[in-house]
Amino acid sequence: MRGRKPRIETSGEHLRRLDRRHMANVLENLERCAGELHGQCHERLRRRRQIVRAAEQVHAACGIATQLLERLSFSIEATQRLARKGKRRLGIGFVPSSFYGQLPTLVRRLRQIDALEIVLQEMTSVQQVAALHSGQIDIGFGRIWLDGPGVRQEVLFEEPVLAALPARHPLVGTRPSIERLAEEPLIVYPARPRPSYADVVLGMFHQRGLHIEVLQETNELQTAIGLVACEMGITLVPRTVRRLVREDVVYEGISTAGLSSPLIMCLRHDDKHDPVMASVLEHVYALIELRKRGKF
């Protein structure tokens, strides 16, 4: 070390070293701030998405509520008009498939009662329960069992299920099994609200451990039959639907035992002692008895 002079740092070098340290601290602080900002932005974005989803759900719920209020308002106005005429309004809710059975005959008979004004409203089984609570309907005919307070249900009869096939389908005339039908693209209805008859049909396959391809879900029975006519797939329908005649659709029996769909009547518990509803039920049970005798 002898002979070497100690190095004396100049003021310029000292400043540059301080600048480097300062810049390193600045960069470190910037990185930390950037990380915090990124986290805050991510959290704000997540919250914003939650708010948007909540707003969409509220908007949808408001739309449904508005429709229900409009229907209820219409029912109230109709009831007030009928009251001025000295008539009682009888609201009947029904799923489309029931209209191909005894329901038209029931309506014709009830319309002969001068004191009644019959109002028919197509709706799913789920919607019927809500409509009974609101007073929009007084009796409903559906396809699925729904437990609920204030409403009683009764299975009127079990109806065999048929396969609706395109007229040129190779299964026409063969009485296929449910296992064979599982190999075909399936069309189910109604798509919503759920649960619905669509779940009844899907359950027929799932209970037997069968995998199926659901080609399309639609809300209307007529649309499902139209898609079958287009040769896009098949669908399963209660037997009375075969009265919906099309030359390009064939209703084929299913060889598998135990495939049926119930027709379920639903009423308000509070109406059990209502003399008008008692008269309506007399007509209902009379038609069911005729059906048992093979008259329908």
TrEMBL record:
InterPro entries the record matches: LysR_subst-bd (IPR005119)
Presence of keyword Transcription regulation: yes
Source species, domain of life: Bacteria
Cellular component annotations (GO), alphabetically ordered: protein-DNA complex
Ranges of residues in domain LysR substrate-binding: 87-284
GO terms, molecular function: DNA binding; DNA-binding transcription factor activity
Keywords: DNA-binding, Transcription, Transcription regulation
Protein family (similarity comment): Belongs to the LysR transcriptional regulatory family.
Name of the protein: LysR substrate-binding domain-containing protein
Natural source organism: Halotalea alkalilenta
